[in-house]
Amino acid sequence: MKVLFAAGEALPFAATGGLADVAGSLPHAENANGCDTRVVIPFYSDIPERFRQNCKFVTNFFVPVAWRNQYCGLFEAEVEGLKYYLLDNEYYFKRQGIYGHYDDAERFAFFSRAVLELLKHIDFKPDIIHSNDWHTALIPVFHRVFYSGIPEYAGIKTVFTIHNILYQGKYGTELFNDILGLPQWAFPLVEYDKCLNFMKGAIVSAGAVTTVSPTYAQELRYPYYSYGLDRILLDCSYKFSGILNGIDTVGYDPNTDSCIFKNYNAADMSGKAENKIGLQRMLGLPQDKSAMLIGMVTRLVEPKGIELVKFVLEEILTDHVQLVILGKGDWYYEKFFCEMQKRYPGKLAVRIGFFQDIARKVYAGSDVLLMPSKTEPCGLSQMVAMRYGTVPVVRETGGLNDSVIDCGSAGGSGYTFKSFNAHDMLGAIRRSEGAFVNKPYWKEITSRAMNTDVSWGKSACEYTALYKRLIEG
């Protein structure tokens, strides 16, 4: 089975968030499961030079973007056995930053059309084109309108995955003719609530639609979570499902991770205590083994539940705990936590920014990872934490609900709370504190967390089964 995996970003070339992790690891797992999956992304100028040097120029062709014909250069690269196609146009992609430009609609309309034009120039005809989030949402639309009747494209099916429904690719209808260049009969495919909505177009046009966890798939049927697309998802519920993400368990492995202070594994976790001491020392916290160290690796924005932490922060810090926060986001939250760090030296350590090296030290050195998200499509941090033997405290939403079993149940690997309420969160934290002081019981919990299967293996099997169903009709 041949799969072309299209995304706006993918590790190791370009990354701004979890989508890049998925695009860089799920195709590997699919290939291990018998597929021939390849990845296609834009050839951004931000791609580090060490990766650009390994990209080989193949050919160039022209891509229709409404009334324009735009140049597209094709480059190939292979990383750890996975083939990448990188599509180049300096007008669209030679600029600082991947997203957030005034002409993103045109940039990613070009890229989506270029992905389909690409197939005329490579010796690879996919059975499935798997597009992801709004950046590649026009691929199923363009395929349906322009390519499905061409013999060379016969039999190709499209799959679309929603990673974060907040970002839908919404633009004014004046771009329909000038940017998309679709025939007038196709206007209803992409029009929604009096504007163009790229994600809506993908949902109605793709052969199958997925999202990144079963719980999130259920949540998206309700207006509270769907940002207006619940009506479309309910109409398309026959082809909509949720498949839980995994993580790259080779890249995230405490036994080999060179970023942490001391390597360890599930059979011998003695090194985890050294990581805690190392993290405390690095951040200027007292080197106190008896204090439960709570870590947060997060964006400092409202959907991540930061308001809950702010509301009961001083109550948390009255307990025998230390709190480490690594992240960046809204200026208001950054300023608040930096000020509170000054008021609670030795109890609270805050680092503004995201640094992969420090993040891994937080995962390895913390006793608990706090993740009180208001919404969380899947979440990767709780899975990374479990991989490092750190117990997650999470709200029961999206992928957090699907990946963490509360210790009140058999086989528990963390602590959960239901309501988006600060004191419910505090209750879950204090339940974890009660377990932490019972060292034999805490050892059982950390062992269960560390032995939880958070790999892509099961998810890759579910994706390949979905692909097969779609191909077989």
Secondary structure layout:
Elements: E1 2-6, H1 18-32, E2 36-42, H2 49-52, E3 56-65, E4 68-79, E5 82-88, H3 90-93, H4 104-118, E6 128-132, H5 138-147, E7 157-162, E8 170-171, H6 175-180, H7 187-190, E9 191-192, E10 195-197, H8 198-205, E11 208-211, H9 214-219, H10 223-226, H11 230-235, E12 240-242, H12 270-283, E13 292-297, H13 306-317, E14 321-327, H14 331-343, E15 348-352, H15 356-365, E16 368-371, H16 381-387, E17 391-395, H17 398-403, E18 415-417, H18 422-436, H19 439-450, H20 457-472
Keywords:
single chain, 473 residues, alpha/beta, Rossmann fold, 2 domains, nine-stranded mixed beta sheet, six-stranded parallel beta sheet, 18 strands, globular
The CATH architecture of the largest domain can be named as 3-Layer(aba) Sandwich
Gyration radius from CA atoms, angstroms: 23 Å
Low-confidence stretches: none
Strand content: 15-25%
Q: Helical percent range?
A: 25-40%
Number of helical stretches of at least 4 residues: 20
> Major sheet: size, sense and barrel closure?
9 strands, mixed
- The global form is globular
Q: Let me know the CATH homologous superfamily of the largest domain.
A: Glycogen Phosphorylase B
CATH class of the largest domain: Alpha Beta
Number of domains: 2
Structural class assignment: alpha/beta
The strand line-up of the biggest sheet is: 3-4-5-2-1-6-7-11-12
Q: Which fold name fills CATH's third level, the topology of the largest domain? A: Rossmann fold
Give the terminus-to-terminus CA distance. Answer: 15 Å
Q: Overall mean pLDDT score?
A: 96
Total strands: 18
